[in-house]
Each structure stands twice: as structure tokens, then as C-alpha cells.
Specification:
2 domains; 5 helices; DUF1232
């Protein structure tokens, strides 16, 4: 169980590193775009594969998110990474920030996606 907790804490630290890397001006645009997608998905309360589906529900949490983090970390220059690691460690000691605007934006985007799917399904069956 301790191994799993350490793995989860490391994963959380890496997401915070990506969060800071996205905000860094020295990171290339393509890395920022991919990193933004990974961070938003990691922090999003809604998953592509719903968690209540047996086994497959946790597939994104165990495989998709870590793979996305791994690829995003490889896209970011080493000097940017080292600065972002320091910032992430500081933030983890002080507690994560609460950004209600970004959180609201994530919920709004997912709500619009679900609404579009409902409208399309309604049109399809009527």
C-alpha cells in the first residue's frame, strides 16, 4: 500500500510540474498545448472511461494519465523542467492552489460536450 501512495504522490508532483511548465514562456508551443490537455484531463472530475465500469473505469487513471504525463515531460526542455520541479515542490509543501475559474471552465467544457451528445442522441432517435 505504501508503494501505491508513493506512486500517487509522485504522479501528483509531476502534474504540478506540468502545470508550471505550461505557464513557462520558455516551453515550446506544442509542449504547452499537449501539457495543457494532460493537466486539464488529470484535474478534471470527468473521465473518458467512467470509473464505475469494472476494471476499465480505472484504466485512464492508471495508464492514460501516466502515459500523457510521461510524453509531456519529455517535450519540455531540461532547464524549464528543473525550474518547474522547484516550484512544484514548494507548492506541494504549501498546499495546492484553488483556481475556481479554471475549475469552472473545465466543468463548463465537459457540460457542453455532454449537452452536444444528448442533443445528437435525441436527433438520432427522433
Amino acid at each position: 500500500m505504501e508503494k501505491i501512495k508513493a506512486w500517487a504522490k509522485n504522479l501528483k508532483r509531476q502534474v504540478f510540474i506540468l502545470y508550471f511548465a505550461y505557464k513557462d514562456e520558455r516551453a515550446p508551443w506544442y509542449a504547452k498545448a499537449f501539457t495543457a490537455c494532460v493537466v486539464v484531463y488529470a484535474f478534471s472530475p470527468i473521465d473518458l472511461i467512467l470509473d464505475f465500469i469494472p476494471i476499465l473505469g480505472y484504466l485512464d487513471d492508471v495508464i492514460i494519465v501516466p502515459l500523457g504525463i510521461m510524453f509531456a515531460l519529455k517535450m519540455i526542455p531540461k532547464n524549464v523542467m528543473s525550474d518547474c520541479k522547484v516550484k512544484a515542490e514548494e507548492m506541494m509543501k504549501n498546499g495546492k492552489p484553488k483556481n475556481w475559474i479554471v475549475g469552472s471552465l473545465i466543468v463548463l467544457i465537459w457540460s457542453l460536450i455532454i449537452l452536444c451528445l444528448i442533443v445528437k442522441a435525441y436527433q438520432l432517435f427522433n
